[in-house]
């Protein structure tokens, strides 16, 4: 089940005003040439995190008591959609806001919240979560990174890979094994980025989402205070992950829809301008039918995400429903973007055309946050 307590006091008018302000900020601060530079450099400069914090972009759901705006998932969706409309999927603000910060909000001790959440909002602390290991993938119970308690310190050893915000993060929530008691031996421990023994490996060279600094992380006798255990009891990490994954998966579905909708818009515009055999591509029935099918599926996807969002903010989104959303929408995203690229012909294969970047960016969505095959296993358990 979702851990969100219930709908906030924000009205739809408030959400619309947030979208309007965000759109103006992104248009001013993130022009296409800047986004292209992020992709070239494979990272978003730290200055943008600071600017985002000044606007109020960071830590949207952090309670007002810790400096946030106490927003809900509707605000996160606006952020995802506005990023997606501009090809900004590589800037890891949604990860910071929607995936990692909620662990501190829901499970952190009062001391942890006071220590870290204000920095999450101000941009002084960029967040990451380290789940995946070279040999584990989606199998969280196969985690090998270990932490042992020595006096009043945890000592961590292990390796993580494919960690988004990995080069930038100041605080990493590390999924590790604190005992051999199966799933009850997994804990989340916060590691500050300047701890001795913690090193960042390569900024990985990926197929898509080039601006996202996705990294290898290494822990060699990294010592952190015992108080860095997320929550007050060791061995609760697996349950914490299971409670938060529905929101993460719904967020991935929302990003998949944003990419699909942008691909559709780009393709409609292109096929109206591009001529073949003496007339615009849009006048061919094949083009019309292809795009009509994509639009129909996008509208259905949006309706389902709306319903899931309502469940989430009321604390009623279950894991199976979130898995259905991620599975169907991300698979639909891949199919739709592929068909859109086909309508661009040879130009769709050129990196200078945004549709080519969308094709590469979309490919990860059926993999991260739990691969489609894992989603099917979770759904099958409800049959």
TrEMBL record:
Residues 13-124 form the Acyl-CoA dehydrogenase/oxidase N-terminal domain. Belongs to the acyl-CoA dehydrogenase family. Keywords: FAD, Flavoprotein, Oxidoreductase. InterPro entries: Acyl-CoA_Oxase/DH_mid-dom, Acyl-CoA_Oxase/DH_mid-dom_sf, AcylCo_DH-like_C, AcylCo_DH/oxidase_C, AcylCoA_DH/ox_N, AcylCoA_DH/ox_N_sf, AcylCoA_DH/oxidase_NM_dom_sf. Residues 128-222 form the Acyl-CoA oxidase/dehydrogenase middle domain. Its cofactor is FAD. Coiled coil: none annotated. Transmembrane segments: none annotated. Residues 235-382 form the Acyl-CoA dehydrogenase/oxidase C-terminal domain. This is Acyl-CoA dehydrogenase family protein.
